[in-house]
Specification:
The protein is α/β, with parallel strands linked by helices. It is 45% helix and 11% strand.
Length: 355
């Protein structure tokens, strides 16, 4: 069973351009992707400065992206992170949130995700307070699908170390407090899950009282460590059987928009082919469809270096040979590779802290 597939642009660091977003939404719509959620960490007016109006150029970009998505049968959504608003949901916070919701309605959203990740969560009644805010939003937003990202959106204990210990029974309390129509985002057993199992997803479904809406952190390659690698490999660890245990499957893509299309196509194959899926063959096929025969062959041949070695382990000689090889191709993906080799996609901790 193939669930609803989509893109969740939710990574740190260098954002895609408006043109790259529109081209990606249009391209993937032809391969079964049916939603595009705009939630880049670089958009401060959806995050730390959420209460401030978007600049005119960004507002125009959102509206244009919405029109492009709808023209291709793709639901357009936005992820809004009202930072720690649940600590004091007062009149001023409500007024600011109402203004932002009105703005998002004007851009033409189908989906709205209220994101409570990357915030402290170790205090009483967290689930009830977050549910109260989401229900308040539901009554004032024109979006026809509402989602919430919990503060603890994975089993991964790294969240407890960074944001404080999760309240007891947090998922169960949140699920009971939320309207059953509200979707809940979930990344799996880890922030960047290596695999998903039916057993895990069934357990989470029971806790939440609904199937999770998957936020899959592959092939995302943000952060100081992951930005050293190009995540090109085909999807693995996503058995087709899991499709019956999730409400949708959202892919958080890599920083390189053209290269991100390659694993995105293999996820379609993984669901469609089921037990017959072969990730090596899927990668070769997807790479050729995205890149053309010659560039695809080069990329597959260099997979161990580009995907697995990391920039810091590349010698100057090896880096120079790769740069020369891909500079010879007149293709956006080849330019993404040379830009990556030159450090154009490196992400520091400072960048993450400021986003």
């Amino acid at each position: 069973m193939t669930p609803e597939l989509g893109i969740i642009e939710g990574f740190y660091g260098r954002p895609w351009t408006w043109a790259e977003r529109e081209e990606t939404a249009a391209y993937l719509s032809g391969h079964g992707y049916r939603f595009y959620h705009f939630a880049p960490k670089a958009d401060l007016f959806l995050r730390r400065r959420w209460a401030e109006p978007h600049p005119a150029a960004d507002a125009a970009g959102l509206a244009s992206l919405s029109r492009t998505c709808r023209a291709h049968g793709v639901r357009f959504g936005v992820g809004l992170s009202p930072y720690e608003i649940y600590r004091d949901f007062n009149d001023a916070a409500r007024d600011a949130l109402a203004r932002k919701l009105a703005f998002l309605d004007e851009t033409g959203i189908d989906d709205l995700a209220i994101l409570f990740d990357d915030m402290r969560g170790d205090f009483p009644d967290l689930a009830q307070k977050q549910a109260e805010i989401v229900h308040w939003v539901k009554s004032r937003s024109a979006a026809t699908r509402l989602l919430i990202c919990p503060s603890y959106y994975t089993d991964d204990p790294i969240l407890d170390r960074i944001f404080g210990d999760r309240p007891a029974n947090y998922l169960e309390d949140l699920g009971r407090a939320l309207d059953p129509a509200i979707e809940v985002l979930w990344t799996g057993e880890e922030v960047c899950a290596r695999e998903f199992s039916v057993g895990h997803l069934a357990r989470v479904t029971k806790q939440l009282g609904r199937k999770p809406f998957l936020w899959d952190n592959y092939p995302v390659n943000d952060g100081p460590r992951m930005s050293q690698f190009l995540h090109i490999r085909a999807f693995t660890g996503r058995p087709a059987a899991m499709g019956a245990y999730i409400s949708a499957h959202g892919v958080n893509p890599s920083s390189q928009p053209m290269l991100a299309r390659i694993p995105a196509l293999t996820l379609v194959d993984a669901y469609a082919q089921g037990d017959k899926y072969q990730y090596g063959a899927a990668l070769a096929s997807a790479a050729e469809r995205v890149l053309g025969k010659d560039l695809a062959k080069s990329l597959v041949n260099d997979l161990l270096v580009l995907n697995d070695s990391g920039l810091d382990r590349l010698t100057e000689s090896a880096s120079g040979k790769l740069r020369a090889r891909y500079s010879a191709f007149d293709h956006p993906a080849a330019r993404e590779i040379t830009d990556w080799l030159d450090g154009g996609y490196r992400i520091t901790q400072e960048i993450m802290d400021n986003q």
